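Quick one before lunch.
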Amino acid sequence: MVQVHRMYFHYSELPLSMRTLFTGALLVLGVGYLFAMIHVYNSHAGRDGQPGLSITDLAIAYSGSKDATKLEAAMLGPMSGMLPNDERGAVVGWVRRGLDEKEYEDSIKPILDRRCQTCHNGSNPHIPNLDGYKEVSEVAQLDTGMNISTLVRVSHIHMFGITFIFFITGMIFSHAYVRPVWFKAAVIIMPFLAVCADVFSWYLTKLHPGFALVVFVAGGVMGMSFAIQWTVSMYQIWFFKYSPETHTREPSGF
Ligand code: HEC
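Model of the heme C complex:
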């Protein structure tokens, strides 16, 4: 006889209603996770000029880049599909030459009007307004990455949101039969430690770009934990045969 904790119940011992609730939550969270990955990729990939998402991309996103302004970084990264290379070259050249106002009126404004104004005309308060010399110059200053107030806003959203997600998945996963038990506990606690490491590293990346590696690893740990909890739970909810008669429930058990 193997000991299990007196409070432990496997999915197969739970009512169908709870198993369907767990399944529904896992399905929607799984799809949500995919969208989150796409969002991370879209907003950070290619900032360093290379395709794909790299540690350098994250370092640039959080700490800025010593050699690219926000405008350039956007045109190389998320906005790269919005204009052809020769026009990008013209805008970059203008930024590097020092944001001359006459050159802006003659050759840069027409490009931005044509390629960017549909979205950046100031009607959306969440994205930079690119309508006018003063507005464009603001995003053409040296890129110092995300500012602290943005980081603070994203930090609290992230910490609350991720806690909700992993509390739900962890609660569901706690009914899975997994041995050794320390491994099960580790899979449950990891994402909480990772989100702290992740969020603190955003700020530390401002001091030293090397912390982008921690952001990267923490993201990987969260993804891994999510994948394990999701597949093991889903599999055991519907396909795994657990035989309670081979277990005794003990207050001191696992
Ligand atoms: C189809 C709509 C659309 C067009 C066209 C567009 N953008 Fe954007 N832009 C966005 C959105 C949405 C964001 C905010 C989300 C993001 O950062 O990906 C954004 C963000 C930005 C940012 C801020 C990036 C940051 O790090 O905060 C800059 C700079 C920018 N765009 C420049 C441009 C330039 C230059 C063009 C034209 C060559 C352009 N955009 C065309 C939608 C657009």
